[in-house]
Design goal:
The chain has 245 residues and is mainly alpha-helical. It has helices at residues 14-18, 21-34, 45-50, 52-65, 94-116, 128-145, 152-174, 177-187, 191-194, 210-215, 218-224, 229-233, 239-243; strands at 74-79, 86-91. The protein has 13 helices and two strands; from the N terminus they run ααααββααααααααα. The model is unreliable at 1-12 and 236-245 (pLDDT under 50).
Length: 245
């Protein structure tokens, strides 16, 4: 796996970090906080809590031995937001949620220094598109490293976190809330609607505002050239073919 300068990415021992007992416990605390329904094995968060020492040790041993396998998600129908229709959704088992959360923690630890040093999108003369092109190099590396279908949930969650970070950076780059109002109008809002919105451009919480997510939606990121990790879990073509496009 190569970085943008042609050298090896220095985080080769990612899986060792994923199954680190301390990180697994941190992941479990987050899963417990999130709660949620049981997966196909019918194990609830409460049941896992009663056996957490045993089950976390089991996850550690299976990941370390390379024999951990994700279980299929339990399929349910949930209401679509703002609609009477329903859509399909999957509920992973609690153990898989712990592994996914631990992996997300590791990926975020790896990507966070690059974001925090403002490497993406803040250098003088550095456009968002250029920043995304550099980020894509790392994302392709992770897809190559974790080229298994079982990571589809992890990739989906990591995609969401990356987009939130990029939204936050873009707001800071735009600086002025009036600039964002103009972007709202360009995205399809009526002027009187846009002028009623005042976004705090330097606040992380602003990325959750519906107007921000509407302006910088999935289509916007695709237009900027950002690759989505989750896309690769939906495709059957060899990764080499996908990356050559």
């Amino acid at each position: 796996m190569q970085d943008s300068h042609g050298g090896k990415v220095k985080h080769a021992k990612v899986l060792e970090r994923v199954y680190d007992p301390r990180r697994l416990r941190a992941a479990w605390r987050q899963v417990k906080y999130n709660a949620g329904a049981a997966g196909i094995d019918q194990m609830t968060v409460e049941a896992f809590e009663r056996r957490k020492d045993e089950l976390l040790a089991l996850i550690h041993e299976k990941l370390k031995a390379g024999i951990y396998r994700f279980k299929p998600a339990r399929r349910v129908m949930i209401p679509k937001e703002g609609s009477a229709k329903k859509r399909k959704s999957g509920i992973p088992v609690v153990m898989d949620r712990v592994v996914s959360q631990s992996t997300n923690l590791v990926f975020q630890e790896i990507f966070e220094p690059d974001f925090s040093r403002s490497n993406y999108g803040f250098r003088r003369g550095h456009s968002q598109r250029q920043a995304i092109e550099e980020l894509n190099v790392y994302l392709r590396g992770w897809v190559s490293y974790f080229r298994i279908q079982e990571f589809r949930i992890i990739f989906r969650d990591l995609d969401g976190w990356i987009r939130s970070r990029l939204r936050s950076m873009q707001l800071k780059k735009w600086k002025n809330p009036r600039k964002f109002q103009r972007m709202m109008i360009r995205a399809g809002f009526k002027p009187h609607q846009a002028h009623r919105v005042w976004v705090k451009m330097n606040k992380w919480q602003s990325v959750e505002r519906k107007e921000v997510r509407f302006v910088m939606d999935l289509k916007w990121f695709r237009k900027q050239g950002l690759i989505f990790l989750h896309d690769f879990t939906q495709r059957q073509q060899p990764l080499e073919l996908i990356f050559s496009r």
